[in-house]
C-alpha cells in the first residue's frame, strides 16, 4: 500500500493528490468490471459532484424524481443557486425521459433508484438519445453493481458508484469511483479530482480492492436471501407493499400503521442492525424518511432493508418477530 505524498521525480506520479499506485490497483478492478477506465474518489458523493461539474453554469440536468438523498440535495442546491436548470423525471417512463433529455446537458439516472427501486430501461433510453446534440449520459450503478448491469455497454458515457456499499462490502470505509470509456470524460474527471482534492485514501482503496474480490459471492448470497425475504414479506399481513426489482440485495417495503409502526419495527430487531447505509455483510434496515433530506416522494412508512450474509431463516425469524404487534 502506497501512503507517500510525494514521489521521486520522473516516475508515474510526482505528488499524491494527482495519483497513487494503490488507487490504480482498485481502479483496474472496477474498470475491468464496468468495461472502462475508472477513477477513485473520496466518496460516492465526490464522484457524483465531479460528474455534475462537467455541466457548465446554466446547463440543464435531467434527473430522477427521487433518488439517493445526497444526489437529490446536491441537484437542488445547484438549481437553487442558479447554476443549473433541473428537470425531474420518472425514470420508468422511458419516452418522457427521452423527451426531457433531448436538449439537456446531462441525463443523470439511478437504476434501481434508492430507495424506491424503480428500474429504468437504459438501453431504450440511450438509444433514443443518439444524436449529436445529446446530453452526457451518467448512471449511478451502486444498486445494480457491474455484475448485474453494465451501463457503459448500453451507451452510458459515465458510471459512478458509492464503493462504500456493495463493491467494498464491509461497511468499513467511504469511497467512490467514476468510470468512462471516453478519454475526454476521463481527463476532465481526473482534472476535477486533482483540483478539488476529493481524493481517495490509500487505505480505503486497498480495503475496497480486497472487498471486491468477494463481490460476486456476496452478491449471489444476498440476492438469494433478498428474493426469499421479499416473497415472505409480501405475504405478511403487517406489510402493505413490497418493492424488489428481482435482483440485488435491497428490498424496500411499507408497513401498515404508518411512521410509528415502521419505527417500532426497525427498533425491535435483534439480528438485523437498525442503521443507515447498505451493501455490507450484515443486514441493515431503517425508515428512510427519518432523514430530513430524503425526497418527499418516498412514503413515510417505507423501510429499506439491505440483506447481508446471515442465515436467511435467522433473518426471517427476526423480521417476523419485529413485525409482530
Ligand atoms: C450511498 C450512495 C451514494 C453516496 O455515496 P457515499 O459513498 O456515501 O458518498 C450515492 N448513490 C447511491 C445510490 C448511494 O446508495
Secondary-structure blueprint:
Layout: H1 21-34, E1 37-41, H2 44-52, E2 59-64, H3 69-80, E3 84-89, H4 94-101, E4 106-110, H5 122-127, E5 136-140, E6 158-162, E7 176-180, H6 183-196, H7 202-212, H8 215-234, E8 239-243, E9 250-255, H9 258-268, E10 273-274, E11 284-287, E12 302-306, H10 312-323
Parallel strand pairs: 2-3, 2-4, 4-5, 5-6, 10-11
Antiparallel strand pairs: 1-7, 6-7, 8-9, 9-12, 11-12
Helix pairs in contact: 1-7, 2-3, 9-10
Can you tag this structure with a few keywords?
10 helices, binds pyridoxal-5'-phosphate, 325 residues, globular, alpha/beta, 7-stranded mixed beta sheet
Number of strands: 12
Strand content: 15-25%
Level of helix content? Answer: 25-40%
The unreliable regions are none
Q: Tell me the strand order in the biggest sheet.
A: 1-7-6-5-4-2-3
Amino acid at each position: 500500500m502506497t501512503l507517500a505524498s510525494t514521489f521521486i521525480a520522473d516516475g508515474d506520479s510526482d505528488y499524491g493528490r494527482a495519483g497513487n499506485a494503490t488507487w490504480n490497483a482498485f481502479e483496474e478492478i472496477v474498470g475491468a468490471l464496468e468495461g472502462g477506465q475508472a477513477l477513485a474518489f473520496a466518496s460516492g458523493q465526490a464522484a457524483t459532484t465531479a460528474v455534475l461539474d462537467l455541466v457548465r453554469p446554466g446547463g440543464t440536468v435531467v434527473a430522477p424524481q427521487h433518488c439517493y438523498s445526497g444526489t437529490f440535495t446536491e441537484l437542488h442546491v445547484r438549481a437553487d443557486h442558479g447554476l443549473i436548470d433541473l428537470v425531474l423525471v420518472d425514470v420508468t417512463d422511458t419516452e418522457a425521459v427521452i423527451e426531457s433529455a433531448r436538449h439537456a446537458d446531462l441525463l443523470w439516472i439511478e437504476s434501481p433508484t434508492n430507495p424506491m427501486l424503480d428500474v429504468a430501461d437504459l438501453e431504450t433510453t440511450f438509444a433514443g438519445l443518439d444524436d449529436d446534440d445529446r446530453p452526457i449520459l451518467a448512471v449511478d450503478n451502486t444498486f445494480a453493481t457491474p455484475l448485474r448491469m453494465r451501463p457503459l455497454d448500453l451507451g452510458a458515457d459515465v458510471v459512478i458508484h458509492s464503493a462504500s456499499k456493495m463493491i467494498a462490502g464491509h461497511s468499513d470505509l467511504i469511497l467512490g469511483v467514476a468510470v468512462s470509456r471516453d478519454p475526454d470524460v476521463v481527463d476532465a474527471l481526473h482534472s476535477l479530482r486533482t483540483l478539488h482534492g476529493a481524493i481517495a485514501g490509500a487505505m480505503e482503496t486497498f480495503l475496497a480492492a480486497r472487498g471486491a474480490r468477494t463481490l460476486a459471492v456476496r452478491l449471489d448470497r444476498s440476492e438469494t436471501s433478498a428474493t426469499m425475504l421479499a416473497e415472505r414479506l409480501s405475504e405478511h399481513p403487517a406489510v402493505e407493499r413490497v418493492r424488489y426489482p428481482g435482483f440485488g440485495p435491497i428490498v424496500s417495503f411499507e408497513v401498515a400503521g404508518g411512521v410509528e409502526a415502521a419505527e417500532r419495527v426497525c427498533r425491535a430487531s435483534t439480528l438485523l442492525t437498525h442503521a443507515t447505509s447498505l451493501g455490507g455483510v450484515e443486514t441493515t434496515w431503517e425508515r428512510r424518511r427519518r432523514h430530513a433530506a430524503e425526497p418527499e416522494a418516498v412514503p413515510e412508512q417505507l423501510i429499506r432493508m439491505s440483506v447481508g450474509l446471515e442465515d436467511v431463516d435467522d433473518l426471517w425469524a427476526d423480521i417476523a418477530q419485529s413485525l409482530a404487534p
